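Predict structure. Chain length: 427.
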Amino acid sequence: GAGGTEGSSQFRDVLWLGNVASATAIAAAPQDAVAVAAAVCRGVEPGRCFLREAGGSQAHIDSQDMRIWWHSSVHLAELPREDWLASRRLAVSSIAAPVLWNGQDTDNIFHLLVSFLGRLWLHAHSNFPDALRSSPSGDPVLIYVFDLHPGRPGMFGDDGKPLIPGIWAKEFLQLAFPGVKITHVDELAKDAPLIFHTLHLNLVNWGSWVLPSEDLHPPRISRRFIGPHPLLTLMPQAVKRALDIDEAEGDRAVLIVRRSPPAGRRLVNERELVEELRQLYGLTVRVADLSLMLFAAQVEAVAHASLLVGAHGQGLFNLIFLPAGGGVVEVPPCGVALALVYNVAELFGLSFTEILDSSCDEEFMAKFQANQCQPCVAREILSSGRAPIDLDSANVGDCERLPPACDVRAAQTVAFNNVSRAAAIIQ
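Prediction complete.
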């Protein structure tokens, strides 16, 4: 279907207590307000309690727990009017701009595209189009709150500062969403307790992604009968326009994405492939490790190419910045067909090809065979959508919970079994 917002809820006038134990405002608050908050939030982890007024003439306190993403829950209590009026006196500040409160568990570019950036782009287009333009006043049109789970690895640095979103996503957002402000729960807590005039909890969740993930093993979703998504294709164009990148200035080269150590899935005979493409076919070929480049340089390098080539990895998802008519050639490890790059290419209207005649390093294959692994091969299904605006967000159930030793993406190196054949496919 259209990839809705299952599991998400929007509320008006919500009091967030923040970390009540450390909020200096609590000491000076009216005792009836403190009593209500203490009763409602007893047993709830600090920073996870929200209060709002119940509708109608409800005379009792009702509450619910909601999961943010899949690993963090929040407690939302609905209070009778008298209790609500008492508790809201705890607030020392308020936020007028709409707030989207969401989780995220990785800085992986694929995840950021299909959950955070893609979903935010569609939501803003439908509900907050001004968030896609700079605000004349400089005030944010929309605020996006990252609620990161401290128990997940890679969420915070040694200094306690959040690592998500990383530089790639931050710069993308600044360019494509100039009216959106990013913040984190810990930053908001400095101004708590506070009132959100509009709070949308869990806009981004597994039921609302613009593509399914299923532990990164979804099926291939063909859009050949409905075409690329007309709104999502505008998102990378907005980034290129903000950077003043002219695709016409490119030389339509083949851009090979290099993965440098310690990254896995490194192409061991990359040099031979480059020589073959240049000498036999006369192609302009460039090689770049996009992870070592500034964001603007990454976008420009891809926008000035015609074809993106590389082993499966984050760098290939920069394919969204290719010019119209561009394409991507994926080299999946061990010759096992994967789905993620294919799905993004289909969603954004770019051609996809793969080179399956590849081998993985001996150490990985030894573990693969010792564990009697069976590879998870992505099958192709047709999109369930009936129009280009439709999305496929539903979990299909293929290849779930694949043991790490059996995941070909854990290979350290990938080699073409026949470089000449690989070059011919690219040409």
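Summary: The two ends are 37 Å apart (CA to CA).
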